[in-house]
Amino acid sequence: MRRRELYDAASGGGGPRLLPWTSPEGKPCYLSSDGRGYLSTLADSIETVQLSMGQELLEYARAATAPGAKALSANECRWLARRLTEALTDALRVAESRGQRIPDQEEATEDA
């Protein structure tokens, strides 16, 4: 497939897109679109922010747990564990959403 066809397939051709946020009840939210609208762009931006925040948090955790670093208090450890859990949850949701939008290899060869 050409690059544009791969982009089109990954950006909304394979069914509803898992969004990077949940409902107030904690249920997953989905978007059915062609991948080019306002909500798709907003979701892309939020995913970028989530992954960037996770990267910054990981750098902080590495520095805080490095040999010779000042020991964290119990409250600081709990805060760090909660933020790392949130970041991992976000990263896994982004990976799941993007994975669902990758066309199957068989479909890609049939369309070529």
Protein model, in words:
The chain has 112 residues and is mainly alpha-helical. Helices cover 64% and strands 9% of the residues. The chain contains four helices and two strands; from the N terminus they run αββααα. The protein has helices spanning 3-13, 38-64, 74-100, 105-111; strands at residues 17-22, 28-31. It has a two-stranded antiparallel ribbon with strand order 1-2. A hairpin with a 5-residue loop joins β1 (17-22) and β2 (28-31). The termini are close together.
CA radius of gyration is 18 Å
Main beta-sheet strand count, sense and barrel state: 2 strands, antiparallel
Order of helices and strands: HEEHHH
Name the strands of the widest sheet in spatial order: 1-2
Number of helices: 4
C-alpha geometry: elongated
Q: Specify the helix fraction band.
A: 55-70%
- Cα separation of the termini: 5 Å
Q: What's the total number of strands?
A: 2
Give the mean pLDDT.
87
Unreliable runs: none
Structural class: mainly alpha
Q: In terms of topology, how is this protein built?
A:
Blueprint: H1 3-13, E1 17-22, E2 28-31, H2 38-64, H3 74-100, H4 105-111
Antiparallel strand pairs: 1-2
Helix pairs in contact: 2-3
